[in-house]
Amino acid sequence: MTKGTLDCSGAQIRAHCRHLATVVTIRGVIDALNVDRISECVRRFILGGNPLVLDISGVSHFAPAGISLLYMLDENCRAAGVEWTLVANPAVIELLGDDDDEAMFTITRSVHEALRNLADAIVSRRQLVLPLIGKTAYHVAARGAAWSSRPRQAPRRSLPAPESAATAGGHKPTTR
User: Fold this and answer.
1) pTM
2) What is residue 123's predicted lDDT score, i.e. its pLDDT?
3) The predicted structure's pLDDT at residue 161
4) CB of 22 closer than 8 Å to CB of 50
5) Domain boundaries along the sequence of the chain
6) Where are the strands (E) in 18-159, listed by range?
């Protein structure tokens, strides 16, 4: 077992926080005996706002029980508002019955492809938002220019008339 790797009864889990996503890599065996423990470990890496890439391309055996891991991950990521992608080998993809039209999860063939897809999605979202931001920035700049061209006047302050010590607080002075 390598430093920084969690051992889950035949599966080794390692996580890397990258700029675009947290990449969780699982190697070894995913079966009915360790799927619950693996699910607990993977759940720890669902970090709000940071996409997750689950790389199971190096799994040597993926039992049908492993599908529950994927459904758990999908449910937890949806609840946290986290986008996630599965990197799987051909054997796992075949087990999932992946048709591009009926894919249960977003699946890629490599971590590199998953990260590239996330980067492309960010660029696409920015392109959708930029016209809105540009328009808003233009209007703010135009208002700012109009505001700054006004002559500035000193603010008017009305100060209360000073109270004498004798009448402060509504008391009448007493004489003796």
Assistant:
1) 0.69
2) 85
3) 55
4) yes
5) 6-124
6) 22-30, 52-62, 84-87, 107-108
Distance CA 26, CA 73 (A): 14
CA atoms of 52 and 24, how far apart (whole Å): 7
3-state secondary structure of 14: strand
Q: Which two tokens stand for residue 97?
A: 């019955």
Task: Give the rounded distance of the alpha carbon of 46 from its chain centre.
Answer: 9
Residues with Cβ within 8 Å of 129's Cβ and at least 6 positions away in sequence, in order, are: none
Q: Compute φ and ψ for 15, nearest 5 degrees.
A: -120, 140
Residues 81 and 48 sit within 8 Å (Cβ to Cβ)? yes
Architecture of domain 6-124: 2-Layer Sandwich (3.30)
Question: Which SS3 state, helix, strand or coil, does residue 134 take?
Answer: helix
User: At 61, phi and psi to the nearest 5?
Assistant: -145, 125
Residue 172: what pLDDT? 55
- As averages over each run of 10 residues, the pLDDT of the chain (176 residues) reads 78 92 95 94 88 95 92 94 93 76 81 93 78 57 50 51 53 53
CB neighbour list of residue 119: distance below 8 Å, 6 or more residues apart = 20
Tokens encoding 117: 């897809």
